[in-house]
Amino acid sequence: MFGFHLGISGGMISMDSFLKFFYQVYGKENNIKPSNDPYCKFDSQILALFTSSLYLAALIASVFASFVIQRFGRRPPMICGGVFFYLGGVSVFCAFFRPDAELDGFQKYGWLLIVSRVFYGLGIGSTHQSLSMYIYEVARYQDRKLLNMIFPLVISIGIFAANVINYVVAIKEKGEAWRNSLRFEIFQMIYLICTFLLESPIYLIERGLYEKGKMELILIRKTTDVEEEFNNLMAANEYRAMKDPWISLLKRQYRPQLILAIAIPLFQQLTGINVIIFYAPILFKTIGFGAHASLMYAMIIGGCNVIATLVSIFTLNKKFGRRTLFLQGGIQMFICQILAIAYKFGLDGNVGILPKWYAIVVVCGICVYVAGFAWSWGSLGWLVPSEIFSFEVRSAAQSINVFVNMIFTFVIAQIFTTMFCHMKFGLFIFFACMLIVINTFIYKLLPETKDISIEEMHVIWQSHPYWKKFVKPIDITISDEF
Ligand SMILES: OC[C@H]1O[C@](O)(CO)[C@@H](O)[C@@H]1O
């Protein structure tokens, strides 16, 4: 669902019928109208809010969720998320399935579009952390790594599904296709199924409900032979009771984890990936591609993202170290940005009928960029934190990770159209500079974590040229098996 929302809005706002509707509904009161400059046609803060409101809501919900997860368990935020998805669906339903929903009706109910995005955002914010924590806690130790890698894969599949829906509804239907794209969102109500999940045994043990925790562990593992695992969970609980993860994370000793919990999601967004994921159809239309072609190219790029993520999980991650992949992907993305600048992406405003070869070069260039992201920052951005956040600070560090990811997803969604209007192809200079900073950071500050256990990580920090200043040899870290 997260992936689906990342992918759906860009296609919709590139559809002329949507823009017309949007400016009709919101333009009057807010004095906005589409510009004649092709780079500025989409430059409206309210239009950007249609995309970004979801991430702003997700950001706020994720803060609440991280407290609820600790106090009331992993299930309540999942159930709240289900209710929010349901309300998002109801808002779309009210706006589009009403018998009087002719143009006037749509104008009257247009605000429900943003309301539905806010509900979906609250749903995503509530579930993002609780689900990833739940999966981590319930999974067997040996399955965790794979599950962590599947996370970016399912996001990319969600994005691709949204791209396909946008394209198919647009070619099947003339005019008001975006309404059908929105109707697909209603299927998210199936998320309510998640409310049937059991509570995490780790949470129950934390709350002193030992018997219940053991029962749920038996149900989850489908065997009564859980004594050893249960005893491990109890031992880990005693250890955890002595240390609050938020207080620990602020200690000097955990500085590498704190900095990386902020830097990894921040840099993942500053690679500029969401400029493409959110706004590829707009970029294409601006430089003169047709409406259907723009949606088709966005779909090809979405497909490329899925394939490259699969390649990353099943081959590259097994063969190459994390640093190598981060740096290789970063350099690949940097070269693509430089090419976009050199060839003045968008022909510097001379939009019109474009030769076919130009379209092919642009789309291939973006595919190479997206592939570079998918096998570096896309997959490692979720995997590496799980390898470096030690047990005692994991929940706090993971909350920060999700929070920072949401802030910058929101920022990019909100400022892109304005940046594009003012900077034109110079936008790529900004992201190219960011990639220099990002690659330098990885080169200097990220130690290799492939095939390193959490206990060994401690030694890695101590022998790192920079982090050794912070990490003292005496502190021990509890095994990741807990
Ligand atoms: O697959 C690309 C997508 O992955 C994310 O970085 C999350 O991991 C999103 O921000 C982006 O849209």
From TrEMBL:
It is found in: Membrane. The chain crosses the membrane at residues 46-69, 78-97, 109-125, 146-166, 186-205, 258-282, 294-316, 325-345, 357-378, 399-419, 425-446. CDD domains: MFS_STP. It is a multi-pass membrane protein. Its main location: membrane. Residues 1-450 form the Major facilitator superfamily (MFS) profile domain. GO terms for molecular function: monosaccharide transmembrane transporter activity; symporter activity. SUPFAM superfamilies: MFS general substrate transporter (SSF103473). InterPro entries: MFS_dom (IPR020846), MFS_STP/MST-like_plant (IPR044778), MFS_sugar_transport-like (IPR005828), MFS_trans_sf (IPR036259), STP/PLT_plant (IPR045262), Sugar/inositol_transpt (IPR003663), Sugar_transporter_CS (IPR005829). One of its GO terms (cellular component) is membrane. The keyword Transmembrane applies. Pfam families: Sugar_tr (PF00083). Keywords: Membrane, Sugar transport, Symport, Transmembrane, Transmembrane helix, Transport. Belongs to the major facilitator superfamily. Sugar transporter (TC 2.A.1.1) family. This is Sugar transport protein 1-like.
